Amino acid sequence: MNVPATLTSKPITPRLGAEVYGVDLRDHLSEVQFSAIHDLFQKHHLLVFPGQQIDAEQQGAFAERFGTPDPVVKTEANDGSYRNAVHTVTNLNDQGEPTTSMVINANYWWHSDRAYRPAGSLATMLYGIELPPTGGDTLFADLIQAYESLPESMKRRIEGLKVVHSYEFMRDTIMKLPLTDEERKKVMPVVHDLVPVHPVTGEKILFLGMYASEIVGLPLAEGRDLITELQEHATQPQFVLAHKWRPGDLVMWDNRCLIHKATSDYAVGQYRRVLRRVVVQGKQPF
Ligand SMILES: [Fe+2]
């Protein structure tokens, strides 16, 4: 790897994550800088860039080095338009005040961003702006380690299975907010392998999350039970990394092999939690 002299990295755990120093994401990255970061991303699957000071445009430009930013489905206006690809995620209400009413929020369930798209997503970049004094961590579960640690009997049982991932399923079961007919047309259910192979590392991935609605070819209840069993396995503490946010952290992660969720273990109605997100589209097959 050709690494610029100023760019250094430190693994967070032996298998997952690295902190990256010596790069200012406000700047246009040189090809050498980008290539080094890209290599670190493929190797560690989660990168933390502490102490950044980036605006939405700079965050979008960084994301575009990796691919095409993906807009979100839910509309803020009633004109049917998508929200911007670079957008904030907060616990604030329309008056800008912290509110507990945001607890029914899909971010608190394990998921891979945009798993309901045909190509899933490559990565998410989340930038910490305002954080509670403690708590509010984002948790990441490593689906490669989760697959590796399955009993051989389970690996044989799930070999070749395919899973339906449905945005509508999540909206119905978690948000209790049924889709409109227009929204439904934009997010038809998709099918992914239950055990896809990481396109770069070749490692097998136990790919699940809150959009996983059923297993193709299995009775609905049996498929749901299997999804639940596998997801409980994948999210055990030994596979989970908790990121403790500091303002200025830019965290990017590989949605192909990690699921994540936010935590609400702080005074949600008292402290502001404001982050800025952009998701980079994936490729098929992912
Ligand atoms: Fe997410």
How would you describe what is shown here?
The protein is of the alpha+beta class. The protein has one domain: Double-stranded beta-helix, CATH 3.60.130.10. Strands 1, 2, 3, 4, 5, 6, 12 and 14 form an eight-stranded mixed β-sheet that branches. It has a three-stranded antiparallel β-sheet with strand order 11-7-13. Strand 2, helix 1 and strand 3 form a beta-alpha-beta unit. The two termini are 24 Å apart. Fe (ii) ion (FE2) binds next to loops. The site of fe (ii) ion has 4 residues, from loops.
Salient structural properties:
single chain, 286 residues, alpha+beta, Double-stranded beta-helix, eight-stranded mixed beta sheet, three-stranded antiparallel beta sheet, 14 strands, 23% helix, globular, binds fe (ii) ion
Quick synopsis:
By secondary structure, the protein is an alpha+beta fold. 23% of the residues lie in helices and 23% in strands.
Describe the secondary structure blueprint for this structure.
Blueprint: E1 8-11, E2 18-21, H1 31-44, E3 46-49, H2 56-64, E4 69-70, E5 87-90, E6 121-130, E7 138-142, H3 143-148, H4 152-158, E8 162-165, H5 167-175, H6 181-186, E9 190-193, E10 212-215, H7 220-234, E11 240-243, E12 250-254, E13 258-262, E14 274-281
Parallel strand pairs: 2-3
Antiparallel strand pairs: 1-2, 3-12, 4-14, 5-14, 6-12, 6-14, 7-11, 7-13, 8-9, 8-10
This protein binds fe (ii) ion.
Fe (ii) ion is lined by residues 107, 111, 113, 260.
